[in-house]
UniProtKB/TrEMBL annotation:
<dbReference type="InterPro" id="IPR017853">
    <property type="entry name" value="GH"/>
</dbReference>
<dbReference type="InterPro" id="IPR012810">
    <property type="entry name" value="TreS/a-amylase_N"/>
</dbReference>
<dbReference type="InterPro" id="IPR045857">
    <property type="entry name" value="O16G_dom_2"/>
</dbReference>
<keyword id="KW-0479">Metal-binding</keyword>
<keyword id="KW-0413">Isomerase</keyword>
<protein>
    <recommendedName>
        <fullName>maltose alpha-D-glucosyltransferase</fullName>
        <ecNumber>5.4.99.16</ecNumber>
    </recommendedName>
</protein>
<dbReference type="InterPro" id="IPR032091">
    <property type="entry name" value="Malt_amylase-like_C"/>
</dbReference>
<feature type="domain" description="Glycosyl hydrolase family 13 catalytic">
    <location>
        <begin position="32"/>
        <end position="432"/>
    </location>
</feature>
<comment type="similarity">
    <text>Belongs to the glycosyl hydrolase 13 family. TreS subfamily.</text>
</comment>
<dbReference type="InterPro" id="IPR006047">
    <property type="entry name" value="GH13_cat_dom"/>
</dbReference>
<keyword id="KW-0106">Calcium</keyword>
<dbReference type="Pfam" id="PF16657">
    <property type="entry name" value="Malt_amylase_C"/>
</dbReference>
<dbReference type="InterPro" id="IPR013780">
    <property type="entry name" value="Glyco_hydro_b"/>
</dbReference>
<dbReference type="Pfam" id="PF00128">
    <property type="entry name" value="Alpha-amylase"/>
</dbReference>
Length: 574
């Protein structure tokens, strides 16, 4: 099967019942794909919705259940589209609203869900609301943004984009006042104190749910409100806004989900789940676990990961973490201590060009120096964690990055489909592409591409596909709890995923899987303590091979090659 030539689209049948499963978001593997980077169907140098739609078969083949599409709206594209100038229009380079609707129905026809991304904290300074606000302070949009006569308000609020911004206030020469912005100065923050802003945001959310999307990522959600005393992150009024929004979604769009992008510590992020009585988001990205995976790989030490996983905050029923290794942003190091941050800069960002804000702007394969063992280990761990995994486009083939491009564009280059011109991404004149494809020695598109990896049974792509298909057979990975086990080797992480079965899933009623990972760069032997599982039989989830039974004292031993893992089915105890 080849996915490098345009794939004809056959019949746009909507699958009735796609949303009937209230747990769909907990059982899904998501794939983040930036529209402009995936496939250019009309040769203008930009990826577009028709191109993306033509490769849905590829994503289905890979084993993807849901697609997360970062902002594709009208935008001056000064922040990759997170600077929106019209929330209800598709950027012309990406296509039309009809192209988007077609994309959604074709995804649904393949049993895949679509999640879009709404940056509601701020707009572009080119948005008509901002243009009206700066021109006419007394007009209907005068109060849509946060204006002040001085740049002295909200003194406790930190700057997020430390590489480019020196203040969260910027002076507007038209209104002759300062406006508030948490990100780039061309992204003024909306004023959530103004109820008309709430109405405008609700209209946008309804607009996209009405077009059939299954989920909305709430970009930068902690920053909606600020106060003089607080630090402008997760203020009580922000949570109230999210609770109200959730109520609307449950009433008007049952089965659709909200996912929080809150780069915070676990307890604070978990607040975005709300409670069973007063729910907020269905999902929240897990920011603290991700950097600890990278730390463990280089430190050959699992203890920090073990601590974070053991402390994982309980999530309310029906809610789920979104776990990830990489995304379209820098690998953020905000959620680690200064000591860990410096160690990670030393290991992973030894060239200053690799750094961005408080993080590292590189792709997964180049972070891991293209080590197949590490790529497998990191991905297997990701797919074992509690929550729904989010993969980043191109990481399934080990695409590299280009640190000579600006900011986070380093890892937003065209998808590498084939060794042909422009990596098979576009037929345009190469100079016309929105970004050049990667042509570095190790990751050049002539060697790292989908076509070549499909032709090789042992490729990373085929490995990813087979692991995703094994994972899909075991709902415990999506629905189960986690219990971290003690081991006698600091390089080894062991935990049990357990699913008791609540009768709603038409799969095994009960399942327990032992997941063990060795971060050591040398072979090791480990003894693991599993007191609740004495006498249980262990079988490899991939090939069914039998492993030694857990002893009566709950202990058992395993031997590992370098940087490897096991997924072991825990069978009935004798
Ligand atoms: C979070 C997005 O992930 C990032 O790409 C963007 O720059 C900021 N929000 C600001 O919009």
């Amino acid at each position: 099967m080849s996915f490098t030539a345009p794939i004809p689209i056959i019949g746009a049948s909507h699958v009735p019942g796609l949303r009937l499963d209230p747990d769909w978001h907990r059982k899904s593997v998501f794939y983040e794909v930036m529209v402009r980077s995936f496939v250019d169907s009309n040769g203008d140098g930009f990826g577009d919705f028709q191109g993306l739609t033509s490769r849905l078969d590829y994503l289905q083949w890979l084993g993807i259940d849901g697609i997360w599409v970062p902002p594709f709206f009208q935008s001056p594209l000064k922040d990759g589209g997170y600077d929106v100038s019209d929330y209800q229009a598709v950027l012309p380079e990406y296509g039309t609203i009809d192209d988007f609707k077609h994309f959604v129905s074709e995804a649904h026809a393949r049993n895949m869900r679509v999640m879009i991304d709404l940056p509601i904290n701020h707009t572009s300074d080119q948005h008509p609301w901002f243009l009206a606000s700066r021109e006419d302070p007394e007009g209907p949009y005068g109060d849509f943004y946060v204006w002040r006569d001085t740049d002295e308000g909200y003194p406790n609020v930190r700057i997020i984009f430390v590489d480019t911004e020196t203040s969260n206030w910027a002076f507007d020469s038209v209104r002759r006042q300062f406006y508030w912005h948490r990100f780039f100065s061309h992204q003024p923050d909306l004023n959530f104190e103004n109820p008309a802003v709430h109405d405008a945001v609700y209209d946008i959310v309804r607009f996209w749910y009405d077009l059939g999307v299954d989920g909305v990522r709430l970009d930068a959600i902690p920053y909606l409100y600020e106060s003089e005393e607080g630090n402008g992150e997760s203020e009580p009024a922000t949570h109230q806004f999210v609770r109200d929004l959730r109520r609307m979604v449950d009433d008007e769009y049952p089965g659709r989900v909200l996912i929080a992008e809150a780069n915070q510590w676990p307890a604070e992020t978990a607040e975005y789940f709300g409670t069973a009585e007063e729910p907020e988001c269905h999902m929240a990205f897990d920011f603290p676990t991700m950097p600890r995976i990278f730390y463990s790989l280089r430190a050959q030490n699992a203890s920090e990961l073990q601590r974070v996983l053991a402390e994982q905050v309980e999530v309310p029923p029906g809610a789920a973490w979104g776990v990830f290794l990489r995304n379209h942003d820098e690998l953020t190091l905000e959620m680690v201590s200064e000591e860990y941050r410096q160690a990670m800069y030393g290991w992973y960002a030894y060239d200053p060009r690799m750094r961005s804000n408080v993080g590292i702007r590189r792709r997964l394969a180049s972070l891991l120096d293209n080590s197949r063992a590490e790529l497998e280990l990191a991905n297997a761990l990701l797919l074992s964690l509690p929550g729904s995994p989010f993969l980043y486009y191109g990481d399934e083939i080990g695409m590299g990055d280009n640190i000579w491009l600006d900011d986070r564009d380093a890892s937003r280059t065209p998808m590498q489909w084939s060794p042909d011109r422009n990596a098979g991404f576009s037929t345009a004149d190469p100079g016309k592409l929105f970004l050049p494809p990667v042509q570095s020695l190790v990751y050049h598109y002539t060697s790292v591409n989908v076509e070549a990896q499909m032709a090789q049974a042992s490729s990373l792509l085929n490995w990813m596909r087979s692991v995703l298909h094994v994972r899909r057979q075991h709902p415990v990975f999506g629905l189960g709890t986690i219990t971290v086990l003690e081991t006698d080797n600091e390089s080894v992480l062991a935990f049990v995923r357990s699913y008791g079965g609540d009768g709603t899933y038409h799969g095994p009623k009960e399942e327990h899987v032992l997941c063990v990972f060795s971060f050591s760069h040398n072979p090791v032997h480990v003894t693991i303590d599993a007191p609740d599982w004495s006498g249980a039989a262990l079988h490899d989830l991939f090939g069914g091979g039998q492993f030694p039974t857990i002893a009566d004292d709950g202990r058992f031993s395993l031997t590992f090659g370098t940087q490897s893992f096991y997924w072991l089915h825990i069978g009935s105890q004798a």
